[in-house]
Amino acid sequence: MTEKFDDKLDRAARELATEISPKRDLWPGIAEAIATPKRSRWTPILAQAAAIVLLVGTSSAVTYIATKDSNGPIVSVAPELVFEQAAFGGNYHLGPGFQDARNSLRDDLDVELARLSDEAREDVQANLALIHQAIIDINVALEQEPDNVLLQQKLLRAYREELSLLRRVGGLTRNVMRRNDI
Amino acid sequence: MEALLTATSSDYSREMVSAPPKSVAGEEVWIGQAQRSDARAFEALYRLHVDKVYGLCLRMTGNVSEAEDCTQETFIQAWNKILKFRGDSAFSTWLHRIAVNTVLGRIRKSKREQDRIQAVNDVQPARVATGDTGELRDLAEAVDRLPERARHVFVLHAVYGYSHDEAAEMMGIAAGTSKAQLHRARRLLVQQLEEQGFDA
């Protein structure tokens, strides 16, 4: 390969057309694709937002309960606090140990909540409702993207937050009881 | 050879890209509007840049249908990522990067490249209308026949004028590899073109 040929090749390459019009208009296909929102673009954001709300809500509730006296009257617990099935995406199930702990705490929840003040109880219920809503939202997203690892992690974290809150409610009320007893 | 080359000026008519006007002056505004999810502004960007993107896709793939798919995919990805465009490079360069990634991604995914090379070797290739004439047609066709990586480097560096660093970064290879592939491409092109009487 001579230098002369090289130069000619380079010059010729520079002369090749760099802008070529497609024979057909490609825009309609693009327009159709961008008109349909990409699920993967939004669901992680929603899930993340839900997780943040969940985290903030849970933390606030726990902090509130921990710093609040619980001398209010004992009242019955709102029956509308319903727990959904502990499964997600149709492909995953929580382990039996986790499920047992969750069921046990759920059974005691009404009693524990009844020991809290009205305000504290409402806060706990509101935060549990938040967690449950987050679980439902993430489950919906997981149905569309069952292999989304981020969503799976968020859901697992939501279940853990729920369990943690249930445990803390039980522990706090027992502490309150001991203080009251004294 | 010439009998295979039937491109005419009508092959790259611009009639279908008449509106909105191709004004670079409006590009910045359209980018801003597209970043606020204005599909109409994004269409203006498409009209402005489609020939550059399609040209690159066609040169890299050597296949009209594949180039069309890559062009569409490039713009769809550009729409999805447009919030990430900060103007650090020209918008056309940003689109070119997406286009190169798209082409390479599709090749990796579908292995169609191997089929394409086989088809070129085995049967008479379908003519790709690039607008090149005379010896340039011969060169374009010879480029089409290059092995995948050598062709990509040659197209990015020799045709589109990207530096070895830029081409290497786009392709995810080392600059030295880009240089080696360019050398390989030149050597193979010389062999092909000499056989066709390309006059040095």
Structural notes for this entry:
The complex is a heterodimer of chains A (182) and B (200). Chain A is mostly helical. Helices cover 71% and strands 2% of the residues of chain A. Chain A has helices at 3-15, 27-35, 39-67, 96-114, 118-144, 149-181, and strands at 87-88, 92-93. In chain A, a hairpin with a 3-residue loop joins strand 1 and strand 2 (92-93). The radius of gyration of chain A is 28 Å and the shape is elongated. The relative contact order of chain A is 0.15. The model of chain A is unreliable at 72-90 and 175-182 (pLDDT under 50). Chain B has 200 residues and is mostly helical. Chain B is 66% helix and 0% strand. Chain B has helices at residues 27-35, 39-61, 64-81, 91-110, 112-122, 135-145, 148-159, 164-171, 175-195. In chain B, helix 3 crosses helix 4 (91-110). In chain B, 40% of the residues are buried. The model of chain B is unreliable at 1-23 and 120-126 (pLDDT under 50). The A-B interface holds A 1-2, 4-6, 8-10, 12-27, 29-31, 33-35, 38, 41 and B 11-14, 16-17, 39, 42-43, 46-47, 50-52, 54-56, 58-59, 64, 67-68, 71-72, 75-76, 79-80, 129-132, 135-136, 139-140, 143, 154, 158-161, 186-187, 189-190, 193, 200.
Q: List low-pLDDT spans of chain B.
A: 1-23, 120-126
Count of DSSP-assigned helices of chain B:
9
Helix content range of chain B: 55-70%
Order of helices and strands of chain A: HHHEEHHH
* Number of β-strand runs of chain B: 0
The poorly predicted ranges of chain A are 72-90, 175-182
- CA radius of gyration of chain A: 28 Å
Give the mean pLDDT of chain B.
Answer: 80
Distance between the termini of chain A: 99 Å
Helices and strands of chain B, in order, run as HHHHHHHHH
Beta-strand percentage range of chain B: under 5%
List keywords for this structure.
heterodimer; A: 182 residues; mainly alpha; two-stranded antiparallel ribbon; 6 helices; 2 strands; 71% helix; elongated; disordered C terminus; B: 200 residues; 9 helices; 66% helix; 0% strand; disordered N terminus
